[in-house]
UniProtKB/TrEMBL annotation:
It comes from Neomoorella thermoacetica (Clostridium thermoaceticum). The active site is at residue 179. Pathway: Pyrimidine metabolism; UMP biosynthesis via de novo pathway; orotate from (S)-dihydroorotate (NAD(+) route): step 1/1. This is Dihydroorotate dehydrogenase. Keywords: Cytoplasm, Flavoprotein, FMN, NAD, Oxidoreductase, Pyrimidine biosynthesis. The lineage of its organism: Bacteria, Bacillati, Bacillota, Clostridia, Neomoorellales. The gene is pyrD.
């Protein structure tokens, strides 16, 4: 992907941290303030009320159906001061690549109406540092650990799967196929069914762990991709990844992001994500994890009714670190209000 020239004297970390200082910018978009509250979020979360929140993703058991979306939760340490990580349905870390990846030059974050554009570029310390420094910390917690992986070639996906599968404490792999294949002229793995299937089969052949494939919405028919990776052996699907978008700075007449285009997330994409989940859940037999614009428990409940067996909270957590906990408590409150005892009763229960 073509990149704009790097702007001198700008530190990527400092640029990213500016997002926190601009909290008011997101406050009016549904990502913060009253938008994060739901009448299904009790002031004092109840416990032991006889409501079952446990869900199954194939052979993977989650204590509840709510987890962070990869790329928005770091390696868990960043959120530990704000919430009890043991309360999450799963821990999902940011994408890991074989070698350290510096990411794209800044600016790489841009607020939009009801959303966020990012072009972070999969910045991460690489597999060796993850295994040596990050994984020991993550092993302290009880929720299943899901590691998201990305490669530039099919072979890299296989090597990542093999080496992570040999490590203790990892419960599942999430395969990010929204990456360009360097051997195929930059074609994104997840936009071509045959490539997506090949990556899936390669990862499955190198691991005993459940394999979750994360689908991109930037295709003509997402159900075609879903069926292709299901046939190749995927144990579950997660969707959607970000929508492609861009913004322009009128003062400079330049792209607002140094990488020109980025991924759009946040409440703005929820209707698109919800529709994709509904369509895919009806097209495949394997479990679906829904994500895209989930801010409140009401949002999450819509995804469950559309057919998702679990959900992931992403951008909302960047504004309200406790958003995931509020969604969990809100789902439980809704079940109690409706006289339901099992969250699985809601999965695919949309009335048409």
């Amino acid at each position: 992907m073509e990149q704009a020239e790097k702007r001198p004297g700008v530190n990527p970390k400092e640029e990213d941290e500016k997002l926190g200082a601009r909290g008011k910018g997101l406050a009016g978009t549904g990502c913060a303030g009253s938008g994060l509250k739901s009448r299904f979020t009790p002031q004092e979360p109840e416990t032991g009320a006889g409501v079952n929140l446990e869900v199954q993703l194939g052979d993977l058991t989650l204590p509840n159906p709510v987890m962070p979306a990869s790329g928005t939760f770091g390696f868990g340490e960043e959120y530990a001061p704000f919430l009890d990580l043991n309360r999450l349905g799963a821990l999902v870390v940011k994408t890991i690549t074989l070698e350290p990846t510096p990411g794209n030059p800044p600016p790489r974050l841009m607020e939009t109406p009801s959303g966020l554009l990012n072009s972070i570029g999969l910045q991460n310390p690489g597999l060796e540092v993850f295994l040596r420094e990050k994984l020991p910390y993550l092993r302290r917690f009880t929720p299943p650990l899901i590691v998201n992986i990305a490669g530039r070639t099919v072979e890299e996906y296989g090597e990542l799967a093999a080496r992570l599968s040999a490590a203790e404490g990892i419960a599942a792999l999430e395969v990010n196929i929204s990456c360009p294949n360097v051997r195929e002229g930059g074609i994104v793995f997840g936009t071509v069914p045959e490539m997506a299937a090949r990556v899936t089969a390669t990862v499955k052949g190198q691991t005993h762990l459940p394999v979750i494939v994360k689908l991109t919405p930037n295709v003509t028919d997402i159900t075609v991709l879903a069926r292709a990776v299901e046939d190749a052996g995927a144990d579950a699907l997660s969707l959607i990844n970000t929508l492609q978008g861009m913004a322009i700075d009128l003062e400079t007449r330049r792209p607002a992001l140094a990488n020109i285009v980025g991924g759009l997330s946040g409440p703005a994409i929820k209707p698109v994500a919800l529709c994709a989940v509904w369509r895919v859940a009806r097209a495949v037999k394997i479990p679906v994890i829904g994500m895209g614009g989930i801010v409140t428990a009401r949002d999450a409940l819509e995804f469950l009714l559309a057919g998702a067996r679990a959900v992931a909270v992403g951008t909302a957590g960047l504004v309200n670190p406790r958003a995931i906990i509020e969604v969990i408590d809100g789902i439980k409150a809704y079940l109690q209000e409706q006289g339901l005892q099992d969250v699985n009763e809601l999965v695919g229960a949309l009335r048409i």
